[in-house]
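User: I'm writing a tutorial on reading structure tokens. Could you give me a worked example: one chain, its sequence, then its tokens, then a sentence or two explaining what the tokens reveal?
Assistant: Sure. Here is the example chain.
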Amino acid sequence: MSLHYVALGDSTTVGVGDPMNGSSTTDLSGAGARPGEGWRGWASLLADSLASSHRVTFSNFATSGATAPAVATEQLPDAVSTGPIDIASLIVGVNDTLRSTFDSGRIRDCLQLCAEQLTARGALLLTVRFHDHGQVFGLPSWLRRPLWQRIEQVNLAYDDLHTKYGGIRLDMADYPEVYRRDFWSVDRLHPGERGHRRLARGFADELARRGLRIDVPPELDCASTPPSKWADTVWLVREGVPWLGRRAGDLTPWAARMAVSQLRPPTNAEVQRLEA
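And here are its predicted structure tokens:
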């Protein structure tokens, strides 16, 4: 049996956080792996597992830093040009929540466009529901709550997608290990080797339940060790602080607005909308 699998999304689907050489260092510049490195990641692990039982063609169109509009305008045309598709993963939206230009309606429209065109070519969709990233980051509650509100808006868009187009959807909140430190790479934004393996295994198990033969499921055992506290500190100095500096002009305005909206009392108009 032949299978054509296409992957669309951001740096998580690129494989960032799961370097082939076992290093735990993550580069947030968006350039991907450092010289001499290569990212593996959950999508490649899943493709390898599928190849244990089928003739698999795997095309990964994901790019680091991608937002939902970027996936729809830049990745989707290339993906659908490959012809009939059996499996298509579509995981994007976290980068959108970290920008001052966040627009839940636009995200929903972009995801719908992608799903419509991919399923029209025969694809079974693989999607997710995102967990509480603020809890993983250790953000204070006044910032964690509004970030979670944005993530939930993205999740609602995926709910609509799943209702309309079906497919397989993993709810990351159903996995308690998502909130364990060893699930994540040193930046806590990208899964580490354990996290990527868990994602691949989750999708493989669901595909198998649907009757797709998979002789060798993705392995859950990891070769790498989770980042130490020292590695966390070194990464923060070398990568995290410079990244925050580059993103400050974009992150600070929406973070401040969200914080203020959480701290100020609701207006009469807002109370009336809640009571309606």
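What the tokens reveal: The two ends are 55 Å apart (CA to CA). Strands lie at 2-9, 55-60, 87-91, 124-129, 168-171.
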